[in-house]
C-alpha cells in the first residue's frame, strides 16, 4: 500500500520531437486564425489560462510536485500588474514584467518553505500559504478588497502601440504565450529538464547521483511561479480587472483540473485542457452553480478512468510524443 | 474586574473559550484526517464537505422528521459515515496502487460536487439551528460567563478524541489496525480482512467529521461553504502536528485553537493568518512537524 507503482504522468514513447514540431505549427496556425473566427476576448482568456496551465504543468508534469496554491502567483501577479499599470502608469510590457517578478519573488519564499516536505504535504503547504496570501489580499488597502482593482488601462505597448483595440491586444497576448510556451519547451528538453524528470521518477536516486535536488526543485518552482505570474498579469490587462477570484483556492483547483483534463506531463495537454475548461465555463454559464458540480464530476472521472488526459490518450493512440 | 497585559480579563477569557471551541473542531477534524491517512494513505480533501454534510443532516432531521439534536448526534455520523463507506467502495479503492496525489485530486473533486449540490438546493446563506433546550443558558464562573453549550462541545470533543486514541492505541482492534497500516499483506496472511478494515476506517473518519458538523451547527450557521475554508486551516494544523500520531493531532488541534483565540485579543488583524504563519515557522525549524516522523 505504501509503494506508489504509477507516477503522476503518462508514460511516453521515445520517438523524437518531430511530432511536437508539427503539432506546434498546427497550434500556431489555429491561434493566428482563432480571433477571426471566435470572439477575441474569449481566445485571449483561453491563452492566458493555457499559459497558466503550462506553467503549472512544468511543476507537476516534469518534477512531480503538486502545488495546490498556484492561484497565489496568478492572482498576486494580476494585482501587481494592475497596480503598476493603473497607479504607477507603467507601460503594459513593464507592468506584466513587474507582475512576473512579484510572482517569482513569492514563488521563491513559498518554494523555500514547501520543498522541505514531499508529496501530499507539499500540496497542503502550498494550499495553506496561498490561503494566507488570500487573506492578505482581502485586507490589504491597495487590492481594494471585494471590489478588486477595476478599470485597469491596457495602455500603449512601449509607449507607442495603442492596445485598446482587441486585435492589437490579441497580438501581444499571442506573442507572450508563444514566447513563454517555447521557453517552457526549451526548459523541458534541456539538461536541466532531464534532471527534473529524474527527480520525478526517483528522487532518492537523483540525490545519490550527486544532484542537489532541493535546488533543482526550487528553481523549477520559481520558474513555474514566474510564468504563472506573467499569465496572471496578462489576464489583468486583457480584462482590465484584478480581483479576489484570481487568488482564491478555487482558481488553484481549476488549473489542476485543466492540466489533468489535457494530460499531465504532456507539452500540449495544458493548452487543450485550458481550452476545454474555459469553453465549458463560458457555454455552461447559464447553469449557475452546477458548473462547480460538473467540474467536480470531471475531476472524479479523470482520476478514475482517464488519467492520461486528452493529449496523453491521443499520443498513446498514435504512439507519438505530444 | 482585573486586567492582564492591559486587556480586560473577561475579554481574554471569552476569546480563550472561543479558541478552545475552534480547537475542538480542529482536533476532531485533524484526528479524522490522521486516521484516514494512516490507513488509506489518502488525504481526504472532502473532509470539510463531509463536516458540512453532518451539519445539514442535523438541520434536515429537525426540519422534516422532527428528530432533535440528540438524535442528530447519533444519526448524522452514521448516515454520513455510510456515504463514506460507499465512496470508498465505489471510488477510492481503485486508487491505492497509484500515486497518493490522485487520492487528493479525487476527494477534491468530490468536495466540489458535494458543496455545489448543497449550494444549489439551500443557497449560499446560512441557516439557523437552535441550541437544544437542555443546554441553553450558562454558568457564571465568577471570572467569566460560560455558555453551557460551549462547555458541552469542548467536553464531548475531548471524550471523542481520547476515546479514539484509546481504541487505536490500547485495544486489540486498534493494534490490528496499526499493524495493517505498517504491513497490510502480512496482516492479511493472519486472516484479518484488511480491505473491510480500510472501508470501515474511512467510514469512521468521515463519521467523525459529520459529528463535528452536528456540534458546529448551533454555534456557526449551517451553510454549504462552512467546511471549505475550515479544511484548509485543518490542513495547516496537520502539517504543524504531523500525521504520525493520534495524540499529536489532538494536542496540536486544541493548542492552535487557543493560540488563534489569543491572537484575536492581542493582534486581531492577524487572527486569520496566525496558523499559517506558525506553519511556516514550524517548517523552518522542524520540517517533519511537531509530532511527525520522517517526511
Describe, in plain words, how this protein is organized in 3D.
The complex is a heterodimer of chains A (322) and B (295). Chain A is mostly helical and 322 residues long. Chain A has a single domain, classed as ABC transporter involved in vitamin B12 uptake, BtuC, CATH 1.10.3470. Helix content of chain A is 70%, strand content 1%. Chain A has helices at residues 18-37, 40-60, 71-86, 92-114, 119-139, 166-189, 191-201, 203-208, 213-239, 249-262, 269-283, 290-305, 309-318, and strands spanning 156-157, 161-162. In chain A, strands 1-2 form a two-stranded antiparallel sheet. In chain A, a hairpin with a 3-residue loop joins strand 1 and strand 2 (161-162). Mean pLDDT of chain A is 88; it is low at 1-5 and 10-15. The mean pLDDT of chain B is 88. With 295 residues, chain B is mainly α. In chain B, a hairpin with a 4-residue loop joins strand 3 (138-140) and strand 4 (145-147). Chain B has a domain at 25-127 and 135-223. Chain B has helices at 9-40, 47-65, 69-90, 100-122, 148-170, 172-182, 184-189, 194-216, 228-241, 246-266, 274-285, and strands spanning 3-4, 7-8, 138-140, 145-147. The chains are: A mainly alpha (322), B mainly alpha (295).
Keywords:
heterodimer; A: 322 residues; mainly alpha; ABC transporter involved in vitamin B12 uptake, BtuC; 13 helices; B: 295 residues; two-stranded antiparallel ribbon; 3% strand
What is the straight-line distance between the termini of chain A?
A: 32 Å
How many beta-strand elements of chain A? Answer: 2
Low-confidence stretches of chain B: none
Query: What sort of overall outline of chain A do the alpha carbons produce when their principal axes are compared?
Result: globular
**Strand order of the biggest β-sheet of chain B:** 1-2
Instruction: Determine the number of helices of chain A (DSSP H or I, runs of at least 4 residues).
Output: 13
Oligomer: heterodimer
Largest sheet of chain A: 2 strands, antiparallel
- CATH topology call of chain A: ABC transporter involved in vitamin B12 uptake, BtuC
Helix coverage percent of residues of chain A?
A: 55-70%
